From TrEMBL:
Domain of life: Bacteria
Organism: Iocasia fonsfrigidae
SUPFAM superfamilies the record matches: Translation initiation factor IF3, C-terminal domain, Translation initiation factor IF3, N-terminal domain
Domain Translation initiation factor 3 C-terminal: 85-168
Pfam families: IF3_C, IF3_N
Location of the Translation initiation factor 3 N-terminal domain: 8-77
Protein name, per record: Translation initiation factor IF-3
Keyword Protein biosynthesis part of the UniProt annotation: yes
GO aspect biological process, one term: ribosome disassembly
Length: 172
């Protein structure tokens, strides 16, 4: 149950509630009206924290402050969450050394940015006969990026393309 659908004050339907004071101490089972009166005396809200319990558990607290704290926690959790995108590097079998080095730099940059890298080698026409050239390119790329990431899936053929995935090392 999210913080949005907690019942507070007059919205609590149960006749009896198990009350917890604002200091976190168990008060015991009271009628809803007595519990509301205690909350009003302290100028706080009565919040139903465990509606599924018998009787429901209610706590005396500042509801606005509670909602603010929950939103702050959710924001912090979202900030610490790591979102990983997939970036793709494509090349042909007959790629020249300079062009390969450009693709290697791209893959290294993507891994530094903590993105997953999908490497694709395209085979055209009769190049398909020489799959070892594709595996050679993949091996060179693995060697060039081994300090930044590791191979998630080994090179494999799918139609006229060879694919491989590299994932960044998370501890760096």
């Amino acid at each position: 149950m999210g913080s949005n659908d907690l019942r507070i004050n007059d919205n609590i339907r149960a006749r009896e509630v198990r009350l917890i004071s604002s200091e976190g101490e168990q008060v015991g089972i009271l009628s809803r009206n007595d519990a509301l009166r205690m909350a009003e005396e302290k100028e706080l809200d009565l919040v139903e924290v465990a509606p599924q319990a018998k009787p429901p558990v209610c706590k005396v607290m500042d509801y606005g402050k509670y909602k603010y704290e929950q939103a702050k926690k959710a924001k912090k959790a979202k900030k610490n969450q790591n979102v990983m995108n997939i970036k793709e590097v494509q090349m042909g079998v007959k790629i020249e050394d300079h062009d390969f080095n450009v693709k290697l730099k791209m893959a290294r940059r993507f891994l530094k940015d903590k993105d997953k890298v999908k490497v694709r080698v395209k085979f055209r026409g009769r190049e398909l006969v020489h799959k070892e050239l594709g595996y050679g390119l993949m091996d060179r790329l693995i060697e060039g990026t081994e300090d930044l990431g590791k191979v998630e899936s080994k090179p494999r053929m799918e139609g006229r393309n060879m694919f491989m995935f590299l994932t960044p090392d998370m501890d760096k």
